C-alpha cells in the first residue's frame, strides 16, 4: 500500500518530469555522454539527494526514462487489430504520429545526434514486435520446407525496410519542426506500407 502511495505521489511525478525536461534541454546542446548527474539536477533545479531517491545513477535514470516512454508509446499504438488491415494500418499510423507530436521534444533529441545511441534500436524493437506478430504468419503461410528460409529472409528485410524507414521519416519530420500534420503524415506513410504489403502479396485488396 505504501509503495502505491509513493508511486502515485505527485511530488515524485513532478520531480521526474523536471529531470526529463532537463535532459531534453541539455541534449539540445551536448551529447548524452557529456551530461552528468550534476548537470541534470542543476538544470532541473532539484536537490541531488532527490535524484538519488529515484535513480541509482545517470544510466539508471536514462534506462528508466526510456523504458517508461516506450511503454507508453507501445500502449498508444495497440488495439487496432480488430479492424480491416488497411484501416488498422491507418489508425495505428495516426496514433503513432499524434503521440510523437505530443512528445516531440523528447523524441527529437533522443533520435538526434546527441541522443542515447540505443534509443533508436529500442524504439524500432517495438515496431518489429508488432510487425512480426501481425504479418509474419501471412508471409510464411503455406511455405514449403525448402522455401521457408528464403521467405523468412525476405520478410526480415521487408520488416527492416518498413520499421527503420518509418523512424527515419519521423526523425526528419521532427527536425523540420513538424511541417506536416500528424494525420497527413500517417495517411501518406500508411498508404506506402499498405502498398508494399499488397505488392509483396502479404495482403490482398480484396480482403478489405
From TrEMBL:
PROSITE patterns: HTH_TETR_2. It comes from the Bacteria. Residues 36-55 bind DNA. Pfam families: TetR_C_8. Transmembrane segments: none annotated. Residues 13-73 form the HTH tetR-type domain. InterPro entries: Homeodomain-like_sf, HTH-type_Tx_Regulator, HTH_TetR, TetR_C_Firmicutes. Signal peptide: none annotated. This is TetR family transcriptional regulator. Keywords: DNA-binding. GO terms for molecular function: DNA binding.
Amino acid at each position: 500500500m505504501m509503495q502505491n502511495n509513493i508511486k502515485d505521489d505527485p511530488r515524485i511525478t513532478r520531480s521526474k518530469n523536471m529531470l526529463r525536461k532537463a535532459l531534453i534541454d541539455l541534449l539540445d546542446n551536448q551529447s548524452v555522454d557529456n551530461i552528468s548527474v550534476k548537470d541534470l539536477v542543476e538544470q532541473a533545479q532539484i536537490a541531488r539527494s532527490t535524484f538519488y531517491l529515484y535513480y541509482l545513477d545517470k544510466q539508471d535514470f536514462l534506462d528508466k526514462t526510456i523504458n517508461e516512454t516506450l511503454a507508453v508509446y507501445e500502449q498508444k499504438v495497440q488495439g487496432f487489430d480488430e479492424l480491416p488491415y488497411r484501416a488498422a494500418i491507418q489508425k495505428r499510423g495516426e496514433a503513432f504520429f499524434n503521440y510523437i507530436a505530443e512528445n516531440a521534444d523528447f523524441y527529437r533529441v533522443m533520435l538526434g545526434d546527441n541522443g542515447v545511441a540505443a534509443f533508436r534500436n529500442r524504439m524500432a524493437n517495438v515496431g518489429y514486435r508488432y510487425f512480426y506478430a501481425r504479418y509474419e504468419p501471412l508471409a510464411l503461410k503455406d511455405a514449403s520446407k525448402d522455401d521457408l528460409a528464403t521467405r523468412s529472409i525476405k520478410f526480415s528485410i521487408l520488416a527492416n525496410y518498413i520499421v527503420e524507414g518509418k523512424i527515419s521519416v519521423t526523425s526528419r519530420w521532427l527536425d523540420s519542426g513538424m511541417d506536416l500534420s500528424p494525420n497527413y503524415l500517417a495517411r501518406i506513410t500508411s498508404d506506402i506500407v499498405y502498398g508494399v504489403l499488397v505488392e509483396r502479396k502479404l495482403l490482398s485488396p480484396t480482403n478489405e
